[in-house]
Amino acid sequence: MPDSTPQPLDRLAGRGRDDAPALVLRERTLTHAELRKRVGLLAGWLAGRVPAGARVASWAAKGELTCLLPLAAARAGVVHVPINPLLKRAQVAHILADSGAVLLMGTRARLATLEDADLPPACSPIDEADVFALAEAQGDHAGPSAHDPDALAAILYTSGSTGRPKGVMLSHANMWLGAVSVAHYLGMAEDDVTLAVLPLSFDYGQSQLLSTWYAGGCVVPLDYLFPRDVAKACARHAVTTLAAVPPLWLQLTDVEWPAEAIGSMRRLTNSGGALTLDLVRNLRGMFPQSQLFPMYGLTEAFRSTYLDPVLVDTHPTSMGRAIPFAEILVLADDGSLAGPGQEGELVHCGPLVAQGYWQDAERTAERFKPAPAMSEYGGTAVWSGDRVLRGADGLLHFVGRRDAMIKSAGNRISPQEIESAAVASGLVAEAVALGVQDERLGHAIHLVVRPAGDSDDPESGLRKALQKELPNFMQPHVIHWRDTLPLNPNGKLDRTAIATEIGA
């Protein structure tokens, strides 16, 4: 078991050898010594600009600023709020208002899409291209901090099955121990090179950075346009570690991989959805010398389980066992510990459990509760809402979700967000968004609607309205038009009947 003593998150800066590469940018490469210096410079500027504990948001593509902010904000004693660069102004406005962000660092084009009412009165927008120039002009450098590891370090916004995105509160300890755990069970070393293709606004995306830097390795951030760009980057940089979600893995297995990329790859990791048997076989065939790590996690507890690569060929559909610092209980419906082969809810205990939802005591109380009496860790546990069972061999297996969450192309999507946007268009009176199983996406988004009034081309109008309000990954793949929608005995839309009708 690795060292379980948490540290202030900013101590991850520059753990590698001074002259070893730490971050490969388009225009230059930062060594670990330079990474320490740049984190200190950015932290000094933040500490001089905003008060301790303030929320600072970023809304930009991968680059030096977005990669360094998790550590710099932690060193400055402020709370980082990374915003998915794919989100549009309505979602960004909600996150800014909900978090109370006082600073928004983003690309000029993204900032230009915001309307006056989207920015809270106390929130200042800053072009990301100006940030380091401002920091250098100020000239303050902050050294390694001595912050309480239990202090809040970041708020990651994630969609639930109902309502708008909610902010998951992560402490220094949550993120530090997450990095330690992943680096340990992946066996990462200082000569590892990680290609960071996942969004840095996700916990899985941030883990690409933090676990690599904990091990003293190097990160290559990449915003790719085509799957072949990923394969080429792996060859160009001799990448050893690649993390992805199932829809991306499907795309990557369809492209030609250079021999250099296959030869340097030590490990492939998957989360954000289960791998299919065919996909496991394809990846094992394409990368016969690489270790494949299927993983399961939830933002409220970072990561819960992983399957040892030596078991992938014989147990390809298993979730595996608990990662270091995680205790995974399977509770039957009566609250007792489920026996082997008995289905129950996955409950995660231990120091990786987040601090709850930002300014949302009601929803926090629904998911975060005192750990069950049989827990070895005690403290607070998170109820996942996922149904699993543990085999006689101790391996966990996923059964299904309790709520209506849609998981498409690795994104957690709230049906209610799509439904609200559809009704707000004025073209539909009622709407139900559902996920339908899809081999490439995980879930394809199907929107079932009842029209409001007459329109010559309601489909075109609705799609235009949704494209204006929602990011691309939330756009419905299929829209079903119905004259009436079924109701349940309580007079509410019967989601189960609608799902059955469309094969969801």
Can you give me a brief rundown of this structure?
With 504 residues, the chain is α/β, with parallel strands linked by helices.
Explain this structure to me?
The chain is an alpha/beta fold. Among the domains are: about 1-170, 3-Layer(aba) Sandwich (Rossmann fold), CATH 3.40.50; about 405-500, GMP Synthetase, Chain A, domain 3 (2-Layer Sandwich). The protein is about 30% helix and about 25% strand. The chain has 15 helices and 25 strands. A hairpin with a 7-residue loop joins strand 7 and strand 8 (about 165-170). The longest helix has 18 residues, at about 30-50. The model has no long low-confidence stretch (mean pLDDT about 95).
What overall geometry do the principal axes of the alpha carbons give? globular
What is the share of helical residues?
Answer: 25-40%
Just give the CATH class of the domain at 1-172: Alpha Beta
How would you state the average pLDDT, rounded? 93
**End-to-end distance:** 42 Å
Keywords:
504 residues; 15 helices; seven-stranded mixed beta sheet; five-stranded antiparallel beta sheet; Rossmann fold; 25 strands; globular
